[in-house]
Amino acid sequence: MERKDGITINGKPMTLEGPALKTGEKAPDFKALSQDLEAKSLADFKGKIKLIASVPSLDTPVCDTEIKRFNDEAARISKDVVIIFVSMDLPFAQKRFCQEFDIKKVKTLSDHREANFGANYGVLIKEMRLLARAVFIIGKDDVVKYAQLVKELSSPPDYDAALKALKKEANVA
Predict the structure, then answer these.
(1) Alpha carbon of 139 to those of 49, 114, 124: distances in Å?
(2) Which of 10, 23, 110, 116, CA to CA, is 20 to 30 A from 39?
(3) DSSP secondary-structure letter at 109?
(4) DSSP 3-state assignment of 134?
């Protein structure tokens, strides 16, 4: 399934592959690689509230700011929350980035091998084989509670809206 109205890069429309996830839907499973080259799926985070952010690359200024902000703010919300960043970066590059910037509360997953996450979550940019910027909050019941697709790839997500949705799901004021 291709969507032509998904996102833009410097104002130029791009094609997204996969469905547009909506709140209330069961979150699709995925396969991606951890920094240690272990296959991970949605089931590996069972019983947790999941904030999953897809980004084009950790080595860009907007992504750099995004992962640091969620590492600092989202991780403090509840012990029941796991923060996952998915990109096409190789696991080795993700590991280097996290070590260099002391990112310890975010789990990074690489979708480079099969683009399985990107296709299943509707964030795979066909023309570039990168992931669009999006934030998903998935409850302990694996239902999508919040979905934010950032229209312009170079723009940051709405942090306040994502953190508010995460706090609501975690029952934190």
Answers:
(1) 5, 25, 23
(2) 23
(3) E
(4) strand
Query: Which amino acid does the sequence have at 89?
Result: D
- Cβ neighbour number for residue 68 with a 10 Å cutoff: 14
Phi, psi of 120 (to 5 degrees): -70, -30
Per-residue pLDDT tens over the stretch 53-77: 999 999 888 888 888 888 888 778 8
Return d(Cα 173, Cα 169) in angstroms, integer. Answer: 10
- Catalytic sites, residue numbers: 63
CATH code for the domain of 79: 3.40.30.10
Distance CA 124, CA 18 (A): 7
Structural domain that includes position 42: 2-169
20-29 pLDDT per residue, tens: 999 999 999 9
**Mean pLDDT for the stretch of residues 93-99:** 93
Nearest to 126 by CA among 32, 1, 17: 17
Paired strand residues for 51: 83, 137
Joined together, the tokens standing for residue 75 give 């991780």
The torsion angle over the Cα atoms of residues 117, 129, 110 and 46, rounded to 10 degrees, is -10
DSSP per residue, 136-154: EEE-TTSBEEEEEE-SBTT
Q: Is the dihedral of CA 60, 91, 22, 71 positive or negative?
A: negative
